[in-house]
Sequence to fold (879 residues):
Amino acid sequence: MKKFLRILFVGIFLILAIMSLSHPIKTETNILRTVVSEKNTDLLDLSNLYSAKINILVEGEEPEEVSETADKFNESALENNLKSISVDGNKILELYKDARAGLLSANTAKLLEKNDYEKVKENTIEMIYNPLGFSLLKPEEDPFLLFTDYIANLGDNINPDGIINYEDKYYRILNYEFDKDISLSPSLLNKRVKKIIGIQKQLSVNGVNVYLTGTPVHSYYASSRSMMEINIICVLSAIFVIFLCLTYFKNISVLIPVASSLLLGGTAGFFVTSLMFPSIHVLTFVFSTTLIGISVDYSLHFFVSKTKEKTGDEVLKEIFKSLSVSLLTTISAFLVLFFSHMELLKQIAAFTVTGLITVYLFVVLFYPVICKKIDVNNSSENPRWNFIFSPATRKIIMIILGIITISGLFFTTTNDDIRSMYKPSKKLMQAETLFANVVGINPKTSFVVVEGKNLQDVLEKEEHITEIIGATKYQAISKFIPSKSKQAKNRALMQKLYDTEISPYTSALKASSKVPAGDYLVYDKESFPFLEGFFLDENKTLMILYDFDKPELLSDIDGVEYYNIQQDISNLVKECRVNCAKLLIPVFILLFGLLAVIYKPKNALKIILPPLCACIFTIGLLGLLHISLNLFHIIAMFLIIGFSLDYSVFRFNGKKLVSDAVFMSCMTSVFSFMLLAFTGFKLISSLGFVLSVGLLSSYILSLLLISKEE
Amino acid sequence: MKKFLLILLVSFICVNSVMAFGSRKNAREIAEQIPELKNISCKFTQKKIQEDLVLNSGGNFKFISDKGVVFETLYPIKMITTYNSPRNKHINDIILAVSKKDYTYLDKNFDLDFTKLDERWQLVLNPKKDVIKQHLHSVVIDGNSGIDRIYIDTVNSGQTEILFDCEKE
Fold:
């Protein structure tokens, strides 16, 4: 029977592997994907707007050296496939010229609407006498200089490539964008950014500084640092595990089946998750590595119970109930995550449940066979790491834990700002601040997504919005390409001006009394590459508003959505945090129910109390340390339950030596998470801290609440 | 004085500024003959000629190194023209590039010809890029101990001649 089950296990694993590897597996790195659901894709698109953009700020004492360095940088950047948005000025000007009858600056259009022709003429005369000003068209073609006025007003919307003087230093700004195929691949993107950083270092000499800002730069530094830290942690963790195995089992070969089981579990988890979801979020991997900590318990219990006298099957028989109950409770806790509205939690559930089942089956089906020849030094009848506390000590520890928990809970606060999860290095922060100051970036930026039946409909809606927002500064496609209806209206206004005021010019300048004929100006991608970024979809665009704080004015317009990204994301994170926290209650009820069926309610309560109290204690400790509770802390609670419930179950079921297995299991996990707590990426470090505290406290509580006699 | 006129020229062109690469040596050599730019106030008279039409104007001119140039036209209309508004951002950028001796930036815009005979000299600026050439033929500066005259020949707006008189200040 077991032989058949082993073949079935291998068969299912191979089928999963073939199915999974036969389709492309995508990795999602956007942290917002953890909280933004499909219905909020606009928000995600908006947040992705700048994900492929990189900004270069060249700083120097003299403008000459700044320009020279900027040019050198540009040459090197283009050699490295960085895309700079270039505009064919000739072509655009020709398009505008052909459609000039429908083009009026906002100010002139307003004057014409009010029939204030005197002011229009006054402006024309001022333009004529402007010493450094000149007309883009011949006087007879544009007697009122309306076209020159329109083009001049577009000027302030185009990013200048001139020198900027800021606080006694000179700056040049270069903007680049990576191609989509590069920006969507973290490894490719990092390679390119590495080259850019190389150029930066090469050119930051002789008093000239080159600063890099933008999402790809942050991603590069964060991932490079994390990679190095994780490598160090892996090495340290491996040394610690080897040390434990050598100390306890006096045989390092136990690591072979342990590592094999973990590898199989992780691989199976990956296969199933990739089949269930269109892309796997990188945080799924981060959280699911905790699978190692949970599933290593099964192996440790096997080897701790193994002696020379007992066969593998006998050992398995002895621990089978513990292993099975442990698996059942852990996967029950994770299965509840499928009812959450967060894809990340669903992915973690799929990955962990599959991984745990695989490791469990591997231990149950294969360990008795493959571990026959692994001789472990379990001669002692008594556990080596069994901590028994006197009733007085138990009381003191409980009181201390209780005081910390209760007092901490009073200080518990929450923080749903996703930016608080990432703290860039001082150098990067300095570059971002400098860039914002030099460019004059307005921190109060909000977005409006406009959707219509077609582009003309969208442009009309944009124009309607600009009327509503009044003097608010903004950027939008309609600023460069007016809608056809607006162009028709402008044409009529211009004709009325001509009808009223053109007569003196018709003889003096030989100007026509009719506004020039010509087509409507329409958008085309090739002529207006700098407008491409405004499109979220064929018929969906975005407007950027500065210092706008009356979103209620836009709420009634059909197809228009207002987004204050920072606020909206914080609201979403809060919603996810609350939903996750609410899920914790059914998880505990479900686990209690399961344990009550197996062990009776009174014992179930004893088993479930340590992880429950550990979660509350951890939240209390965070409060006491003035660390605000965030979404990822709540997710960590599920992991604490998943891990530490095993400690209680094993202790409750366990034979004499089980306390050694529980101790080793706890120590390996706490050690690894403690190391994570010292990493630079705040999300990971806060998780590491919470998990190490949660697991350690749960272990201590299991010692206090589940006595050996039981 | 020479240099502030150079500013005017460059500023004029940058209404349609599109950059190109050119002779770096010329700009540097010419700049060496231009004295350090200081804040200056002058009278100016301007003549814009378009076919048969001649428009005369005049007033005060100021250059303030950290603010840019200001034309205060006093006749036939009163108006003040500055080049540091968002509408004239490009002009201001180039004014800064010139006044702070940013030759790299300057060379992208013009081919420069500089001739000198005794105390008199002439600087001719020819735009490099087509988009500028469509609107500007050339700019000529005549000077002696200072700048006396700027002559701007455009495609659509005729010719503009600005005469400076700093002695009368």
About this structure: Confidence is low (pLDDT under 50) at residues 1-25 of chain B. DSSP finds five helices and nine strands in chain B. The beta strands of chain B are 40-50, 53-64, 68-75, 79-82, 110-117, 120-127, 136-143, 147-154, 159-165.
